[in-house]
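Morning, I've got a small favour to ask if you have a moment. I owe you a coffee for this, so here goes:

…
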Amino acid sequence: MDPKGADFERYRGATLLTPNMKEFEDVVGKVKSDQELVEKALALVKEFDFEALLVTRSEHGMTLIRRGQEPFHLPTQAKEVYDVTGAGDTVISVLAASVAAGKSFEEACALANAAAGVVVGKLGTSTLSEIELAEAVHGSQDTDFGVISEKALIEAVKKARARGEKVVMTNGCFDILHAGHVSYLNHAAELGDRLIVAVNTDESVKRLKGPGRPVNPTDRRMAVLAGLGAVDWVVPFSEDTPQRLISEVLPSMLVKGGDYKPEEIAGGKEVIAAGGEVRVLNFEDGCSTSEIINAIKGGKG
């Protein structure tokens, strides 16, 4: 349901509400961060008994909120924006059709996001063809880079294997991307044909790194990684380790930086048991996110 006005009481019990950022802030007040958006959206879901709330955020993509679930962030897919007229109608139409066809909320949002990315690249109110939507979806999943859902990633890896491609996978927080990260990812990419980077969600980073982390939220960290030529796919995971995700994907090679032993790496045993390989790469000396944060706090650099 696409809301009108600031009275959300009239939509109580809705399956899915899709306010844009202005409509959302008209109800909850000014939002200053992604974390605040998630908290306020979750409060609305609970207050009005929504099954889900999808906030469309223009150039920042969209965020799906559900009770008991990790927030699902999707960066915008629009390459160029000429006219946003009708974008909201496109989103709600594709969402409704997708959910009615049995798609999950995440899958429906990914389709709606791809559809919106197409129509804002046209002048005036425009239609969207099946071919345009298919090209937008396949382009986001089968090009040289892209943020992708776990389910879509598993399918993409199957197709890559069918083409005879060697799939390499690594993981990390990648809170503030630095030269050491780039060097490491370039090296990892050289070990195969496709590189997957699994990224800890904000909640996972906070548990691992403590208060004040991450500096950059999940969607921004994933967007930056997806922009690197070495990276093919970027996927989030909410657990403390990516063991479950790795055991689902089962890459040809699992790569980790540091001084680990292969058998100590999360997911390593599963990859080896499936006939894959585990490699440990060295990090570049003198590069660390913690050092960057400390330097900023100390007023250096």
About this structure: The domain at 150-295 is CATH 3.40.50.620 (Rossmann fold). The two ends are 49 Å apart (CA to CA).
